[in-house]
Amino acid sequence: MYIQPQMNLRPDYHPDLTVVLLGTGSPRAFYGRAKPGAAVLAGDKTFLVDCGGSTVDQLIKAGIMPQRISDVLFTHHHYDHNGGFFDLFITSWRTHITAEHVFEGRSVPMQVYGPETTKTIIGKMRESFEFDVNLRISYNLSDEAGSLIEYTECNEGVIYDKDGIRITAFEVDHRPVYPAIAYKFEYNGKTVVISGDTIPVANTEKHAAGADLLVHEAYNKSWLDALIRQYPKHGKALSNPAKYHTTTLEAAGIAQRAGVKHLLLTHHIPAPVANKAAEEAYIEGMAGIYAGPITVGRDLMVFELK
Ligand SMILES: [Zn+2]
Ligand SMILES: [Zn+2]
Fold first, then answer.
1. Are 159 and 171 contacting, i.e. CB atoms less than 8 angstroms apart?
2. Which domains does the chain carry?
3. Catalytic residue status for 197
4. In angstroms, what is the span from residue 134 Cα to ligand 1's centroid?
5. Which of 19, 32, 67, 149 is buried most deeply by CB count within 10 Å?
6. Which residues form the Metallo-beta-lactamase domain (predicted)?
7. C-alpha of residue 189 to centroid of ligand 2, in Å
8. Catalytic residue among 44, 57, 71, 80
């Protein structure tokens, strides 16, 4: 075997609602923590929630070929959530051939969902790809339909309802980034809510009520306060997360009030080392608020809701 095969390929069909964490980091540059994002698999569909800088590499590591992606759902337009879109857009459109597989490139327009502002921001990005896109059509003979984007902007409401898969967008609060939204996925009797970036809001509790899995962003306030004491000169930058994110203890409160079955933390600030001791310290105090299982998300973790 001389040609690099695709490893750990996930099945084409997922009978159970499945969440793959692609990145559990933040805008900060932490080793082993890609920019935040998740793939949600249901039936033969693969939805991408956010598209940060390492999305294509993380998809390949997760065994999900980028060619499967024709639906990208943005929560908001901070760069850690959209910076990988150029790579994803072109890579998903290219046919990729190994000795064992042919992964046909996307031959349909990319479906892009997001809050208002999405068409303007992603549209400008798409304009910047035009030079490469034209070469791929004229020289590489890529399917022209794949060069297009169709947009669905919606801050609140059902954005997808087909083949038993329903996706609902709802507003959260990440101001000054406005609007910012979260997504609820329902499939085969199971429900997942992905919070996006937000302070604690009642809307999340409402939509996550009884959910099987709540993927919520969180930062550890005492760890951040310790860094501020250590580096007072950088106090303003370090204290920014407190203005528009959720503390670990607040996330526990949301999970408890919503009665979710499992709380999965992501978008860690500051990111803990991916080991048991560090993660237990990171979630200190949460168990006293929320009695259910709490998982500190790591990149490439998979959750199959059976
Ligand atoms: Zn973010
Ligand atoms: Zn953000």
1. no
2. 14-305 (3.60.15.10)
3. no
4. 32
5. 19
6. 46-268
7. 30
8. 80
Ion ligand 2 nearby residues (CB, 5 A): 78, 197
Please name which ligand lies nearest the alpha carbon of 35: 1
C-alpha 128, offset from chain centre: 23
Question: How many Å apart are CA 224 and CA 245, to the nearest integer?
Answer: 12
User: What pTM, to 2 d.p., does this model score?
Assistant: 0.97
Distance 112 CA to ligand 2 centre (A): 18
Residue 62 CB-half CA count within 13 A: 30
135-167 pLDDT, tens digit per residue, is 999 998 889 999 999 999 999 999 999 999 999
What local confidence, expressed as pLDDT, does residue 240 receive? 87
Ligand 2 geometric centre to CA of 179 (Å): 11
> How far apart are alpha carbons 95 and 107 in whole angstroms?
10
Answer positive or negative: Cα dihedral of 244, 245, 247, 250.
Answer: positive
Tens of pLDDT, residue by residue over 10-23, are 999 999 999 999 99
Length of the chain as a residue count: 306
274 exposed, middle or buried (CB, 10 Å; 0-12, 13-18, 19+)? middle
Structure tokens at 169: 């967008």
